[in-house]
Write a structure and sequence with these properties.
By secondary structure, the chain is an alpha+beta fold. Helices cover 50% and strands 18% of the residues. The chain has nine helices and six strands.
Length: 201
């Protein structure tokens, strides 16, 4: 019964698809999940677009109980709102769908970025980094500029222009390399010494 009530609300916001998720049924639009139906409860995916309203309504978060732990995920119980079939439920579902789509698009954009697309970077730098084992943007951001520079020095020699280190740091911070201030530069040099790949005075 509750499932049918939710479908009535959700179809006002467009077509939907379903898939087994978290021991229940995930509700999708264009392959992006925005709601979950589980054990007679209906949960809506959170996003900054919709979370303030969900918090104001004191909706509880969904808890996924595992064998040895309980995982709280960003889905909020809106069962009572759906049962009332209120306009508010439709509004919340629309916001959740839009938020889920924004999250999905942001994720896709991030995964498609290339090293050469970052600030201060170019094809030559990208090739150097890949040869040094930094294959993609995610790895670069995780390891950091000093690690990447030290690895490049290990491969290409220790006479690499120091400006490359500032450029890598700017790429991580999303700024032009000339904006890297002296305290930050000293920190980067210290990190390079820590990695032990370069002999810096």
């Amino acid at each position: 019964m509750k499932r049918q009530l939710f479908y009535k609300v959700a179809t006002q916001c467009g077509s939907l698809q379903t898939r087994s998720m978290f021991g229940g049924t995930g509700i999708f639009q264009n392959n992006v999940m925005y709601a979950l139906i589980r054990e007679q409860s209906i949960y809506l995916r959170s996003h900054p677009l919709v979370e303030p309203k969900l918090a104001e309504l004191a909706c509880e978060k969904f808890k996924h109980i595992k064998k040895s732990s309980v995982a709280t995920v960003n889905y909020y119980d809106i069962t009572e709102l759906v049962e009332e079939q209120s306009d508010l439920a439709v509004e919340l579902v629309k916001l959740a769908i839009e938020g889920a789509k924004q999250d999905d698009e942001a994720k896709r954009c991030k995964s498609k970025r290339r090293l050469r697309d970052l600030p201060n970077m170019q094809l030559t730098t990208e090739r150097m980094m890949k040869k040094a084992g930094i294959e993609n943007v995610d790895t670069f951001l995780e390891k950091g500029a000093s690690y990447a520079f030290a690895r490049i020095c290990e491969i290409y020699g220790r006479d690499i222009d120091m400006r490359l280190l500032w450029k890598l740091a700017g790429a991580v911070d999303g700024i032009h390399w000339e904006l890297i201030q002296e305290p930050k530069r000293q920190q980067l040099l210290q990190e390079c010494r820590h990695f032990g790949f370069v002999a810096l005075q």
